[in-house]
Amino acid sequence: MTIANHIVVFLVCWWLVFFMVLPWGVKGHHESGEDFEAGIEPGSPVKANIKKKMLITTGITTIIWAIFWAVVEFNLISVM
User: Which whole-number Å values give the CA distances from 23 to 27, 30, 35, 45, in the listed order?
Assistant: First the structure.
């Protein structure tokens, strides 16, 4: 596989993992018990922690990609 193929696999995995990590630890305004301004959606997150979630996503994706690389590099799974 070329480097471009590995980049594509990494990016696709990154986005999939990112969407799985997004709901972790999210607390909506309606769950916080605090009063919030009028016009704010009650279900919107109080603090989204996007940077932290992006770092977690990158770590998990790196592990997944390393496993993928090992399978491809050492021909651990053959199609034929």
Answer: 9, 16, 22, 10
